[in-house]
């Protein structure tokens, strides 16, 4: 790896430290659409090398079995991706999904809200308070998982859709009805303004 002098310069905030005996390995897994993120990935790797580690840079859209093994063997992994729309690029998501079957639902909901806002659309929140936010509530209540942006669900990955938690389906139905109601208000408003 070729690192320029600028990449070897220690920042003012970086304390002096000794790397433990035996070199650590840092993997940088990234996707770059136009080369910008690739340049950042190389700079990150150079910083790791400058701190005494070994580093490997892996473009996740062309990842090989050998590189999967390098990720698995690394002491630490740093991820990076081009940002398209409101989240990491599709190629990075394909890579991430290949390594994991679960995720953070709130980050998905944030993603959907941003996706809605970018073309100047409106996001409709779920609405009422959750039904399981007090000792009087229960897991069968409306919005048992306490999401506010939109509806969120949680079911074991080893069960069939028929075993879906009823409260989650009721909450999803509520969201559909609420969006339909709000859309009708917008529709009527537009009609009134153009009349």
Secondary structure: elements and pairs:
Elements: H1 5-8, E1 25-31, H2 36-50, E2 54-59, H3 65-73, E3 76-81, E4 83-84, E5 87-88, H4 90-99, H5 105-117, H6 166-194
Parallel strand pairs: 1-2, 1-3
Antiparallel strand pairs: 4-5
Strand order in the sheet with the most strands: 2-1-3
Largest sheet: 3 strands, parallel
Number of helices: 6
Rg from Cα: 24 Å
**pLDDT averaged residue by residue:** 80
Rough outline: elongated
Distance between the termini: 67 Å
What are the low-pLDDT stretches, counting only 5+ consecutive residues below 50?
Answer: 6-19
Helicity range: 40-55%
What class would the helix/strand composition place it in? alpha/beta
Secondary-structure element series: HEHEHEEEHHH
Proportion of β residues?
Answer: 5-15%
Oligomeric state: single chain
Number of strands: 5
Would you mind describing this structure in some detail?
- The structure is a single chain.
- The longest helix is centred in the last third of the chain and has 29 residues, at 166-194.
- Residues 6-19 have low confidence and may be disordered.
- A three-stranded parallel β-sheet has the order 2-1-3, sandwiched between helices. It has a two-stranded antiparallel sheet with strand order 4-5.
- With 195 residues, it is an alpha/beta fold.
- Helix content is 41%, strand content 12%.
- It is elongated, with a radius of gyration of 24 Å.
- It has six helices and five strands.
- A hairpin with a 2-residue loop joins β4 and β5 (87-88).
């Amino acid at each position: 790896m070729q690192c320029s002098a600028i990449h070897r310069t220690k920042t003012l905030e970086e304390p002096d430290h000794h790397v433990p005996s035996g070199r650590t390995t840092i993997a940088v897994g990234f996707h770059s659409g136009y080369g910008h993120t690739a340049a950042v990935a190389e700079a990150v790797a150079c910083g790791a090398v400058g701190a005494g580690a070994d580093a490997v840079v892996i473009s996740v859209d062309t990842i090989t079995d050998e590189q999967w093994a390098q990720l698995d063997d690394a002491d630490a992994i740093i991820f990076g991706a081009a940002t398209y729309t409101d989240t990491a690029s599709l190629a990075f998501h394909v890579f991430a999904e290949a390594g994991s079957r679960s995720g953070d639902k709130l980050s998905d909901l944030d993603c959907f809200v941003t996706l809605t806002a970018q073309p100047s659309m409106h996001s409709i929140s779920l609405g009422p308070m959750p039904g399981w936010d007090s000792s009087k509530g229960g897991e069968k209540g409306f919005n048992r998982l306490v999401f506010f942006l939109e509806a969120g669900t949680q079911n074991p990955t080893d069960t069939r859709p028929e075993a879906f938690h009823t409260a989650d389906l009721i909450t999803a139905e509520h969201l559909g009805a609420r969006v339909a109601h709000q859309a009708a208000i917008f529709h009527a408003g537009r009609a009134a303004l153009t009349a």
